[in-house]
C-alpha cells in the first residue's frame, strides 16, 4: 500500500477479487451436491464411453431448456477436476464427451471405497446450516453452532 494508506487500483482490484472468491466459494460444495443428487457420476460411468452433453441431458430426463444449465455445471466440474472431456472425433475434435476422473470415481454408488456417504452428509443442509449460524452462535448462549442452527446437539438431532 502507498504511504498515505490510499490503496492503489491494483490493490483494490486484488482485494475485490479476494472477497469475491470467498463469497462464492460455497458454490463448489453446492454444485457437488447437485451432481450427487442428479447421479451424474453414475450416469457417465454407466454410459461406458465418453458422454456428450446431449446424451447426459437426455439421460437426466431434463427439459431441453435446462441443457444450458447442465452445460455450465459440467464446465465447472471439468474446471475443478471432477470430470474431464475427451474428443469423440479424432479428426475434427469438435465433439466432446464427459468422462470420469479419479475424484468422480470416488462418488460412484457401486464402487468401494467411495466417499459418497461422507460428501452427501457434509453438503446436506443439516450440516451446512451451522456454518451459516456462526455469527449467531458467537452472539448467543448455545454451546456450539450446530445447536444454534438446529436447536439441539448433533447427537440429539
TrEMBL record:
Residues 21-110 form the O-methyltransferase dimerisation domain. InterPro entries: COMT-like, COMT_dimerisation, SAM-dependent_MTases_sf, WH-like_DNA-bd_sf, WH_DNA-bd_sf. The keyword Coiled coil does not apply. Transmembrane segments: none annotated. The keyword Disulfide bond does not apply. Keywords: Methyltransferase, S-adenosyl-L-methionine, Transferase. It comes from the Eukaryota. One of its GO terms (biological process) is methylation. GO terms for molecular function: protein dimerization activity; S-adenosylmethionine-dependent methyltransferase activity. This is Trans-resveratrol di-o-methyltransferase. It comes from Nicotiana attenuata (Coyote tobacco). The lineage of its organism: Eukaryota, Viridiplantae, Streptophyta, Embryophyta, Tracheophyta.
Amino acid at each position: 500500500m502507498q504511504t498515505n494508506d490510499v490503496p492503489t487500483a491494483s490493490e483494490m482490484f486484488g482485494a475485490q477479487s479476494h472477497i469475491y472468491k470467498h463469497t462464492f466459494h460455497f458454490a463448489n460444495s453446492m454444485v457437488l451436491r447437485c451432481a450427487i443428487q442428479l447421479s451424474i457420476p453414475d450416469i457417465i460411468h454407466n454410459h461406458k464411453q465418453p458422454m456428450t452433453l446431449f446424451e447426459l441431458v437426455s439421460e437426466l430426463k431434463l427439459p431441453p431448456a435446462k441443457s444450458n444449465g447442465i452445460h455450465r455445471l459440467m464446465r465447472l466440474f471439468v474446471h475443478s477436476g471432477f470430470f474431464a472431456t475427451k474428443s469423440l472425433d479424432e479428426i475434427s475434435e469438435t465433439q466432446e464427451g464427459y468422462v470420469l476422473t479419479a475424484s468422480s470415481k470416488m462418488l460412484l454408488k457401486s464402487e468401494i471405497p467411495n466417499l459418497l456417504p461422507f460428501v452427501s452428509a457434509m453438503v446436506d443442509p443439516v450440516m451446512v446450516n451451522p456454518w451459516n449460524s456462526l455469527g449467531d452462535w458467537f452472539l448467543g448462549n448455545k454451546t456450539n453452532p450446530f445447536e444454534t442452527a438446529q436447536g439441539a446437539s448433533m447427537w440429539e438431532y
